[in-house]
Write a structure and sequence with these properties.
Number of helices: 7
Number of domains: 1
Distance between the termini: 61 Å
Order of helices and strands: EEHEEEHEHEHEHHEH
Helix content: 25-40%
Structural class: alpha/beta
CATH class: Mainly Alpha
Radius of gyration: 17 Å
Largest sheet: 4 strands, mixed
CATH architecture: Orthogonal Bundle
CATH topology: Arc Repressor Mutant, subunit A
CATH superfamily: Winged helix-like DNA-binding domain superfamily/Winged helix DNA-binding domain
Oligomer: single chain
Length: 214
C-alpha cells in the first residue's frame, strides 16, 4: 500500500521546497483514525481554497468550485476517521507562506502528508519534478514512472491529487498542446500556467541582465 512506495525526496516550486511522506498501509485503511486535522478557508491568487494540515504535514489543499459546505463534506469523506478542527490562524499562516509571491531565502520546506495508492504516489512524486514554467503531457508523465501504457490511469491519479498547486498537476496537458480538463476548473489551470510562465521568464531575464548601479 501507500507506505511501501518509498515516497521521499524533495521537489522544488519557485523558491519553495516540498518534502513528502506517505501514510502507512494501516493508516491508509483507517482513513485518518486518531489523526487530528486542522482546516480553514482562505483567499489565494487563484481563488478561495480549503487548506488542511496535520502534525505530520499538509494533507489537503483544494480550490473551491462549490459552496464551502460541499468542499468540507467531500474532504471529510476522504478522511472520515479523523477529528476535524477549524483553525483559521494556523492554516492561514501556512496559506500565506505558500502563496506569498515575494522571494525569500532560507524558507523551511513544506512537508506533505499524503494518503494515496502506490500508483498515485508515484505520479504525484513525478509531478513534483516538473519545473515551474514547464509543461508535460500525460504520455510523458506515464513514461517518467515507467508505465508508458498507463496514460489513462496516470490521468486519474493526476485528477486525484490532494494538494493543488504545491503538487503541480496544472502543468500536465494533452499531447497535442491542449490545456485539457482540470479538477479545479480549466480557467484556473490556464491562469496558473500563464502566471508561472511570466514569472519564470521574468526571473530568467533578471539573471541574464542583472540590474546595474550607477
Amino acid at each position: 500500500m501507500a507506505g511501501e512506495s518509498g515516497l521521499s525526496g524533495v521537489g522544488r516550486l519557485h523558491d519553495l521546497f516540498v518534502t513528502c511522506e506517505a501514510v502507512t498501509p494501516g493508516e491508509y485503511k483507517l482513513r485518518g483514525k486518531d489523526v487530528t486535522i486542522r482546516y480553514g478557508f482562505h483567499p489565494t491568487p487563484f481563488g478561495e481554497c480549503l487548506l488542511a494540515t496535520t502534525d505530520r504535514g499538509l494533507c489537503d489543499l483544494r480550490f473551491l468550485t462549490a459552496p464551502k459546505s460541499v468542499a468540507l463534506r467531500e474532504f471529510r469523506d476522504e478522511w472520515i476517521g479523523a477529528t476535524l478542527l477549524e483553525d483559521d490562524a494556523e492554516t492561514g499562516a501556512i496559506c500565506h507562506q505558500i502563496f506569498d509571491l515575494t522571494p525569500k531565502g532560507g524558507r523551511a520546506p513544506f512537508h506533505l502528508y499524503l494518503r494515496g495508492t502506490n500508483f498515485q504516489l508515484k505520479v504525484w512524486q513525478a509531478l513534483l519534478s516538473i519545473p515551474p514554467g514547464n509543461l508535460t503531457s500525460y504520455g510523458d508523465l506515464a513514461a517518467k514512472i515507467n508505465a508508458p501504457k498507463a496514460q489513462r490511469a496516470v490521468g486519474s491519479a493526476v485528477g486525484a491529487n490532494p494538494i493543488a498547486y504545491l503538487i503541480p498537476c496544472h502543468r500536465v496537458i494533452r499531447s497535442l498542446g491542449v490545456i485539457g480538463d482540470y479538477r479545479w476548473g480549466t480557467e484556473r489551470k490556464q491562469a496558473m500556467i500563464a502566471w508561472e510562465t511570466i514569472r519564470t521568464a521574468s526571473t530568467s531575464a533578471s539573471h541574464t541582465h542583472p540590474a546595474t548601479q550607477s
